[in-house]
């Protein structure tokens, strides 16, 4: 019988098709699974930018993509343990947090890192967010 791979890469259809990377990697840790979600940007399922020039609308799409990725991996947003933010404008953090709080359990906020960058891969992309989840087995 073939052994399950230690790492499973996934590209849910509910997120735009990736070019040259996978949207998530799930690692079996025995009693739980860790899911690492690639940096998500404000692209819909067809790869169209959502919210040009609007940090709140872009953040909404980014968090929806993150939620879609973890749902496809069999988890939910309560399993979130870490967020890594990459954004152009430091003052944009509060609107992003306001959107984030619609998606996460604010009683157990995840760890996070914020990096201000001079640019992302496209000029109309205002932020990118990576996420890490830990999903307990048998629950």
From TrEMBL:
The GO terms describing molecular function are: deaminase activity
Q: Which GO terms describe its cellular component?
A: cytosol
Q: Indicate the family of this protein.
A: Belongs to the RutC family.
Q: Report the Pfam families cross-referenced here.
A: Ribonuc_L-PSP
InterPro entries associated with the record: RutC-like_sf, YjgF/YER057c/UK114
Protein's name in the database: Endoribonuclease L-PSP
SUPFAM superfamilies in the record = YjgF-like
Where is region (Disordered) located?
1-21
